């Protein structure tokens, strides 16, 4: 009996370890996106941040956690990654003896959390109720990126909406949409982990 109980516990322990790997990966990417956000480059008349190459992957990793481990694990991952980003910003500013600009930081955190929560809600619905149409998934990526950038840029610009605000926002979304097209092909694949088996059976 003890041998059987041991064998039953092993897969569960393995799953927990794997989920934490994804949670740490999401946290690392969140911090990387914040760091890259401090570096700008200009293309034509529009200024971009290097963070635009990292943002779509934040939702891609969150979606992997959702379909492999469930919404609860994704919520933990989002909260943990936001906390780690806040901790990193605080420590780095203390070490460099710089004052924290709370308004842009609040916007970045609020935009990240709000967009991730919306993404989880939409993605979970699509996963459970649809065939995961690639175009719909792409629209979801663009929508949550719009939420994130709009809130973050709104706080960073001190609530002042200039023409350059809209130019930068649209240009960033178009660039990130191209990156998201590649991610959608992987994101549209369905798996049926144990966490969803009961929900699928009840639905049938």
Model description:
With 204 residues, this protein is mainly α. The chain has one domain (2-37, 50-203). The protein is built from 7 helices and 2 strands. A two-stranded antiparallel sheet has the order 1-2. A hairpin with a 2-residue loop joins strand 1 (40-43) and strand 2 (46-49). Helix 5 packs antiparallel against helix 6. The chain starts with a helix and ends with a helix. Residues 2-7 and 12-16 have low confidence and may be disordered.
In short:
The protein is mainly α and about 200 residues long. The chain is about 80% helix and about 5% strand.
Fraction of residues in helices? over 70%
User: Spatial order of the strands in the main sheet?
Assistant: 1-2
**Overall radius of gyration:** 19 Å
Beta-strand share of residues: under 5%
Low-confidence stretches: 2-7, 12-16
What is the β-strand count? 2
Overall mean confidence score, pLDDT? 83
Q: What is the global morphology?
A: globular
Helix/strand structural class:
mainly alpha
**Oligomeric state as shown:** single chain
Order of helices and strands: HEEHHHHHH
Query: Helical region count?
Result: 7
